[in-house]
Amino acid sequence: MNTKKEIEMPEALTLLELPQTLTGEERSLISISKLNLFYDQVQALHNVNMEIYPRRITALIGPSGCGKSTLIKSINRMNDLVADCRIQGSILLDGEDIYARGMDVNLLRKRVGMVFQKPNPFPMSVYDNIAFGPRTHGVKKKAELDALVERALYDAALLDELKDGLRRSALALSGGQQQRLCIARALAVEPEVLLMDEPTSALDPISTARIEELALALKERYTIVIVTHNMQQALRISDQTAFFLLGELVEYNHTLQIFSEPEDPRTDDYVKGRFG
Amino acid sequence: MSGGDVQSGAGALRSSAGPMQEDAAHRAALRARGAAFVQRSLVRLAAVLTLAILLSIIAYIAVMGLPHISGDLFSFSYNSMNLSLMPALINTLLMTVLSLAIALPLGLGAAIFLVEYTGRSNRFVQIVRLMAETLTGIPSIVYGLFGLLFFVTALGWHLSLLSGALTLAIMILPVILRTAEEALKAVPDAYREGSFSLGAGRLRTVLKVLLPAAIPGILAGVILSIGRIFGESAALIFTAGTVAELPESLFDSTRTLSVHMYVLASEGLHIDKAYATAVVLLVIVFAINMLSAFVASRLTKGGGEGAGHA
Question: Nearest-CA neighbor of B306 among A74, A165, A274?
């Protein structure tokens, strides 16, 4: 199974081998421009401009409260649920303005899946958890659902562990399994983008490593945006890294560039552990 | 003993820094242990007393009622010889089902609206909550008088099953509203986020994720309501009347078990039968509580267990 492959050590790469993604030769999937976001009177994001490329892992790093979670919650419009949240600027998904009037938010969230900081499986069986999304979007046939559930479990590297326990309550799983179940649940609606909001912050190191392996395997087919507090994690799995500070995008570049030769001294201080 | 405690307490305070420090510490420890003993004894006493009172009521009713339970107490029609409780028993169940059928959808719907469709600190929500709390505390006779004036007289439904059931529905509505509201609020926001993030709309989130998770709390409200319906007599005497027959339509007068007991007791001729009825009522309430606890535990097991293992 391809999810079992070793995590590639970024040290082994050289800058020459990096994909030419930030040079404009490749078309971005998500295009964020002049994004300003306010919670009531407080401005949480200041004029963020950012291109996110398909089938890569983009990591958002920065100290707590820097706006990185706020930013990914804008990409699937989860911020709509927060009262008094105002947004200016635009986010284009495949050329389409997701904040345009007439945009179907539920359809957007089908295209842009999300995994949360703490695993949040529903209090139902493993099967029903994964089938929830497809059922929401109109899949009714049992055979079709069965196939989708199995596929999602396989993609989330859970099939071997859970294929005999599909009727078990999802709440009986371990924390790491629950988080992979949440990934499977998100994959079952066949999204284009997977947003991960600190997906390993509540997990032990072994479960964390499995989620990271999974993310690396999934980027073959999905565009992944991951928020992380863990700089080693960003270095291990991401292709691009964006550094945020106080709601501003300070620097956005190839991950190795950010961690070896950042252009901005604030990025340098942060990645070398001088603050944050 | 307590006098000694007070003295040594004062002593310990005065000599806290002096040469008698060790002695004082020892006394303080003793005193703490004594206080703990007293507290524990008081709590135990309260528990034992509560249990004793409850058990003695049940025992008293059983002793007074059990010898008078006989076959004709359960015959299908009531007359002044058999004093059957069967019509009243069936009426009670009818009344319960009818009241709940009216109040549960209303209360649940209102709770869903208040929790899921309006802001948490909405002014309207606060007003509704205040009113619901006030209504919960109103004596049932007030509801009875309202039912008499409105359903019985103004709408001309007479003393009837329907008038009684609607009155009871109004009475239990705030109970169901408040408990369902609390149950929904107790559902973690993570479930809402999870559901919305998969592209589910609000209605689907409520029906498929939130309500199933809130069922134990909602059931608690239903049980409370059933208790109130079973125990209600004053409001029903004014709205459903006291006819000891099975109703042929919604507009027939009926008596529930509580009203039946009230009538038997107030006539003064059949106190023994009133006690026998009380035993039956106790058994039914107990059974309903057991049943709903069982249902709640089945429904909370994540919906997964048992369905496909075999």
Answer: A165
